[in-house]
Design brief:
It is a single chain. The chain is an alpha/beta fold. The chain contains four helices and five strands, in the order E-E-H-E-H-E-H-E-H. The protein has a five-stranded mixed β-sheet, with helices on both faces. Helix 2 packs across helix 3. It is globular and about 40 Å long.
Length: 125
Protein backbone atom coordinates (compact mmCIF):
# COMPACT_ATOMS: atom_id res chain seq x y z
CA UNK A 1 0.00 0.00 0.00
CA UNK A 2 1.07 3.57 -0.60
CA UNK A 3 -0.34 6.67 1.00
CA UNK A 4 0.14 10.41 1.21
CA UNK A 5 -1.03 12.50 4.17
CA UNK A 6 -0.55 16.25 4.26
CA UNK A 7 -2.17 19.06 6.22
CA UNK A 8 -2.64 22.48 4.61
CA UNK A 9 -3.14 25.06 7.36
CA UNK A 10 -3.92 27.81 4.83
CA UNK A 11 -7.04 26.02 3.55
CA UNK A 12 -7.56 24.22 6.89
CA UNK A 13 -7.66 20.89 5.07
CA UNK A 14 -6.14 17.45 5.34
CA UNK A 15 -5.25 15.47 2.22
CA UNK A 16 -5.33 11.67 2.60
CA UNK A 17 -4.52 9.59 -0.51
CA UNK A 18 -4.73 5.81 -0.12
CA UNK A 19 -3.66 3.37 -2.87
CA UNK A 20 -3.65 -0.42 -2.96
CA UNK A 21 -4.47 -2.97 -0.30
CA UNK A 22 -4.04 -1.94 3.33
CA UNK A 23 -3.11 -4.21 6.19
CA UNK A 24 -3.24 -3.51 9.91
CA UNK A 25 0.36 -2.22 9.99
CA UNK A 26 -0.42 0.24 7.18
CA UNK A 27 -3.40 1.52 9.17
CA UNK A 28 -1.21 2.00 12.27
CA UNK A 29 1.34 3.98 10.26
CA UNK A 30 -1.39 6.11 8.70
CA UNK A 31 -2.72 6.83 12.19
CA UNK A 32 0.72 8.06 13.29
CA UNK A 33 1.02 10.36 10.26
CA UNK A 34 -2.50 11.70 10.84
CA UNK A 35 -1.67 12.60 14.44
CA UNK A 36 1.43 14.49 13.27
CA UNK A 37 -0.44 16.42 10.60
CA UNK A 38 -3.69 17.18 12.38
CA UNK A 39 -2.05 19.44 14.95
CA UNK A 40 -1.47 21.94 12.12
CA UNK A 41 -5.23 22.41 11.59
CA UNK A 42 -8.08 24.23 13.30
CA UNK A 43 -11.48 22.98 14.38
CA UNK A 44 -13.84 22.64 11.41
CA UNK A 45 -11.21 21.38 8.97
CA UNK A 46 -12.03 19.60 5.72
CA UNK A 47 -10.66 16.20 4.71
CA UNK A 48 -9.91 15.39 1.08
CA UNK A 49 -9.79 11.61 1.03
CA UNK A 50 -8.75 9.99 -2.27
CA UNK A 51 -9.74 6.33 -2.14
CA UNK A 52 -10.09 5.93 -5.91
CA UNK A 53 -7.27 3.35 -6.04
CA UNK A 54 -7.90 1.72 -2.66
CA UNK A 55 -8.77 -1.97 -2.59
CA UNK A 56 -11.56 -3.27 -0.38
CA UNK A 57 -10.49 -3.65 3.25
CA UNK A 58 -10.77 -6.73 5.42
CA UNK A 59 -13.11 -6.40 8.39
CA UNK A 60 -10.30 -5.75 10.93
CA UNK A 61 -8.84 -2.96 8.78
CA UNK A 62 -12.32 -1.54 8.12
CA UNK A 63 -12.90 -1.40 11.89
CA UNK A 64 -9.61 0.48 12.30
CA UNK A 65 -10.65 2.93 9.58
CA UNK A 66 -13.93 3.51 11.43
CA UNK A 67 -11.93 4.28 14.58
CA UNK A 68 -9.82 6.80 12.64
CA UNK A 69 -12.93 8.41 11.14
CA UNK A 70 -14.44 8.77 14.60
CA UNK A 71 -11.17 10.23 15.95
CA UNK A 72 -10.95 12.73 13.07
CA UNK A 73 -14.50 13.87 13.78
CA UNK A 74 -13.66 14.25 17.47
CA UNK A 75 -10.59 16.32 16.50
CA UNK A 76 -12.73 18.77 14.55
CA UNK A 77 -13.24 17.41 11.03
CA UNK A 78 -16.56 18.74 9.78
CA UNK A 79 -16.44 17.98 6.05
CA UNK A 80 -14.95 15.31 3.87
CA UNK A 81 -14.58 15.33 0.13
CA UNK A 82 -14.13 11.74 -0.96
CA UNK A 83 -12.57 10.89 -4.34
CA UNK A 84 -14.12 7.57 -5.26
CA UNK A 85 -13.30 4.95 -7.85
CA UNK A 86 -14.50 1.45 -7.13
CA UNK A 87 -18.00 1.09 -5.74
CA UNK A 88 -16.93 -1.41 -3.08
CA UNK A 89 -14.38 0.86 -1.38
CA UNK A 90 -16.84 3.74 -1.73
CA UNK A 91 -19.59 1.74 -0.01
CA UNK A 92 -17.18 0.51 2.64
CA UNK A 93 -16.12 4.05 3.60
CA UNK A 94 -19.77 5.14 3.76
CA UNK A 95 -20.54 2.26 6.11
CA UNK A 96 -17.49 2.78 8.34
CA UNK A 97 -18.25 6.50 8.59
CA UNK A 98 -21.81 5.74 9.66
CA UNK A 99 -20.70 3.05 12.14
CA UNK A 100 -18.13 5.46 13.59
CA UNK A 101 -20.70 8.17 14.14
CA UNK A 102 -18.46 10.56 12.16
CA UNK A 103 -21.19 12.99 11.27
CA UNK A 104 -19.25 15.28 9.00
CA UNK A 105 -20.76 16.44 5.71
CA UNK A 106 -19.59 14.25 2.86
CA UNK A 107 -19.24 15.04 -0.84
CA UNK A 108 -18.16 12.43 -3.37
CA UNK A 109 -16.33 13.34 -6.56
CA UNK A 110 -14.59 11.46 -9.36
CA UNK A 111 -11.18 13.17 -9.38
CA UNK A 112 -8.75 14.88 -7.05
CA UNK A 113 -9.04 18.01 -9.20
CA UNK A 114 -12.80 18.09 -8.55
CA UNK A 115 -12.13 17.67 -4.83
CA UNK A 116 -9.93 20.78 -4.78
CA UNK A 117 -12.65 22.73 -6.63
CA UNK A 118 -15.18 21.70 -3.98
CA UNK A 119 -12.70 22.72 -1.28
CA UNK A 120 -12.42 26.16 -2.89
CA UNK A 121 -16.20 26.49 -2.78
CA UNK A 122 -16.16 25.78 0.97
CA UNK A 123 -13.56 28.50 1.41
CA UNK A 124 -15.55 31.18 -0.41
CA UNK A 125 -17.24 33.79 1.81
Amino acid sequence: MTYNIKADPESNSLLIVLNGLANEEDIRQISVFLRREIIKLSFGFTIINDISALKVLKKTEANSVADIQQWLFQQGARRTIRVVGGVFAQAQFRITQQEAGAQYDTSEVATLEEAFLVLQQYSMP
